[in-house]
Amino acid sequence: MKKITIADVAKQAEVSKSTVSQYLNKRYDYMGEKTKKRIQKAIEELGYQPNFVARSLKQKSTKTIGVIVANILHNFTTEVTRAIEDACHGADFHTIICNADDDPVKEKHYIEMLRAKQVDGLIIFPTGDNRDLYQQMLDASYPVVFLDRKVEEMPVTAVMLDNERAAELAVDHFAEKGYERVSLMTTSIFNHVTPRMERIEGYRSALRKNGLAVEEEYIVSADQDEMQEALEKLLQTEQPPEAILAGNDLVLIEVLKYVKHKGLRVPEDLAIIGIDDVSFASFYTPSITTVAQPTFKMGRMGAELLLDKIDKKDKQMSPFYRFEPKLMVRDSV
Amino acid sequence: MKKITIADVAKQAEVSKSTVSQYLNKRYDYMGEKTKKRIQKAIEELGYQPNFVARSLKQKSTKTIGVIVANILHNFTTEVTRAIEDACHGADFHTIICNADDDPVKEKHYIEMLRAKQVDGLIIFPTGDNRDLYQQMLDASYPVVFLDRKVEEMPVTAVMLDNERAAELAVDHFAEKGYERVSLMTTSIFNHVTPRMERIEGYRSALRKNGLAVEEEYIVSADQDEMQEALEKLLQTEQPPEAILAGNDLVLIEVLKYVKHKGLRVPEDLAIIGIDDVSFASFYTPSITTVAQPTFKMGRMGAELLLDKIDKKDKQMSPFYRFEPKLMVRDSV
DNA sequence: CTGAAAGCGCTTACAG
DNA sequence: CTGAAAGCGCTTACAG
C-alpha cells in the first residue's frame, strides 16, 4: 500500500499542493469555501495522514523534547518524568525519555543522538561529567533545562529541591522528638551530585542549630549493593545512632530491609525518616515519616521553562528555581 | 550560529556531498584513504552533526518506535516499558512512551500522532476500543505488537501473561494453606480488559478444581476510588472471605490501606496474595506473597517481536505469546 | 483567492 | 574512486 502524500490530495481535489498545505495549517484567510470542502473531501477519501517528518525538516521543529534522566530507578525521577510528559502533552509536544544510568558516557551518547534527531530542547538530570557538551549547548543557545541537579559554574536554568531545607526538616523533627544521635545515609557521592551534597550540608547545619554534635561516622555514603554492610557497620558500634535519615528512596528501602532482617522495632530501636515520599509510606507498618518533594510541580516547571525557551519567551530567566520540601509526619519517628 | 550541513563539510573537504554521505554511512568500499581523512578532518573542524530528520525523510525510517500504554500507574507497565526501552536502545532505536490513561480517545490521538511522526512501529497496551484503527494498521501491514492485552478477533501479535495460571497459583496456595473462602478483587472490568477477565476465569476454575465453592459476591470489581467502600461491604457480610486475591498492584495497595486502617492482622484476620510483585512486598510487615509477572522478559519479547517485524524478519509469527507467572511465597498467607 | 518554484538536509542510483 | 542530479514530503515567499 503506497503512502498517500500531499500531492495525491492535491490531484484528487484539483488544487495545488500549496493550497492543500495552507488548508492543513489552517491558513484559511482567503480560501474559498468550496476549495476547503474539496480538500477536506479528498483527505477523507484518501485517508491522508500528513508526514510530520517532512514538515519537521522544513520547519526545523520536531515538536519533541528529550529528557535524559540520571537514574530512572528513583521514584522521584519517575514522577517528575510523568509530570514533564503531562505538561508537554498539553503543549502538543512529545517526549523521548532516556536513562543515562548515572553514566556520563551514556549521557553523552543520548545528548548527541537526541540532538541529531533534532529534538527542540532537552531536560537533563545531569551526571555532571559532560561539561564541554553542556557548554557547547549553552554557546549555541540550544534550549536546555537541568532538573534535580545543577553543574558548578554552569549558568543553565535548573529546577531543584531546597535540599538543605529538606534535611533540616528531618533533623528538626528528630530533635523535637528527643533524638540526639542521628545518622544520614546517602547513595554514592562520588560525582558530587548536587542533592546529596546539599542534603549533607543541610544535615550538618541543622544538627548544629539544634545543639547536637556532628559525628562524622554517622554520615555514610555507599552504593546500593554495599548498603547492608554499611548499615551493619554503622549500627554495631559502641554508640550507634538512634535515628537514620535516609537520603533518598533507594536508601530508605535498604534501611527497611535491614530493619526487617534484624527484627528491629521502629521507632523504638531505630527511628527513620526518608527523603522522597514513597508510595508505601502511608500504609507501611509503621507508617513512614518522609520529606516529600513536590515532584509534580517540579516536573511541570521544568517542562514549562523549557517550552518557554523553545518558544523564545525566554527573557533572561533566573537560573535556579528552588522548591520547598514538606515533612509528612507519620509513625516511624 | 548557523547549522552545519553536509554541504559545508563537502566544501571544506573539497569533495561532493555524495562522498560525505557515503563516508557517514560507512560505505568505504572504494573510498580513498586521503578522502576519508579529509572528510574526517572537516567534520571535526566544523563540529558537524548529521541531521537525522533529513535522513529519516529519505530513508523512511525514524529508528523510533512508539509505546502506548493503557495506564502508566501500574507498576507492571513501568517495568515492561523499561525493558522495552532497554531492548530498543540495544538496537539503536528510541522509544516514545504515551499514556492513554485507559481512554480510547487519547489512545486514538496518540496512534495518529505517532504515525504522523513516522515511528517505525507501535507497541500498544490496547484499550480495546479502537478496533477500526487497529484493523487499519493491520491492513497496511504496519508493525504493531500488543502487550498485556489482546483484542478479540484481532490477529495482532500479543505478549501476555498466562493470566489464568496466575490466578490458579494464588488460589492453589490459599487452598493448600487451608483457606476456603477466597475473594478476588480487580479494578474495573468495564472494557473487558483481557487480564482481568482471564484472572477471574482462572480464579473460578481453580476454586472448582480445589473443591471450593464459587461465591459470586466474592468476585468484586471496582474503580480505585470505590475500593475502600467495596472492601467494607465485602468484609462486613455474614460470611466474609478469609482471604483476598488482589488482582493487581493498585488493588493490593487499597487492600493494605484498608487492613491498616481497620487494624486487621495479616494473615490471621485476612490472608492476602497480590498479582504483581510490587517493590515493597519483600520488606513489608508481614512480607506479601505475590504472583510475579516476568515483566522484563515480556517487555524484551515485545520489543524484539516489533523490531523483527520492522526488519521484515517477521515470517508469520504465532499471534500470542504467553508468559509463566511465578508464586513468590512470603508471610501474608 | 491559488499556483509554480525553491528549498529544508539528507541518500542513492547512475554515469564516468 | 567520485560527483551531478533527482527525490523524500512537506512549507513558504512571491507572483499573478
UniProtKB/TrEMBL annotation, chains A, B:
This is Substrate-binding domain-containing protein. PANTHER family: HTH-TYPE TRANSCRIPTIONAL REPRESSOR PURR-RELATED, LACI-RELATED TRANSCRIPTIONAL REPRESSOR. Gene3D superfamilies: 3.40.50.2300, lambda repressor-like DNA-binding domains. Residues 4-59 form the HTH lacI-type domain. It holds the Pfam family LacI. It comes from the Bacteria. InterPro entries: HTH_LacI (IPR000843), LacI/GalR-like_sensor (IPR046335), Lambda_DNA-bd_dom_sf (IPR010982), Peripla_BP_I (IPR028082). The keyword Transcription applies. Keywords: DNA-binding, Repressor, Transcription, Transcription regulation. The keyword Transcription applies.
